[in-house]
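User
New here, explain this?
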Amino acid sequence: MKRYEIMYIVRPNLEEDARNTLINDINQIFSKFESQEPKVDEWGMRDLAYEINDFKKGYYVVIDVVASTDAITEVNRVIKIKEDVIRHIVIARDEI
């Protein structure tokens, strides 16, 4: 397993309850794939460097987790399906 850092940006006009449900759904993937408990850091609403889909702001979420490649593959797949996530990136940090 490796340590990964995942950052994704949620649409700014998403209601708080829906946003919390989305964040929870993404975090639940790690428990299904026997990964360590993810450390979730919600940065909140911030300005974007450039417009994305006519949005000038976004809600930033950063996850630090030790996970298997299967878990990361599933997270990538789910995030790409979710229309409420406007951008994401996954970075492999180091071997554990």
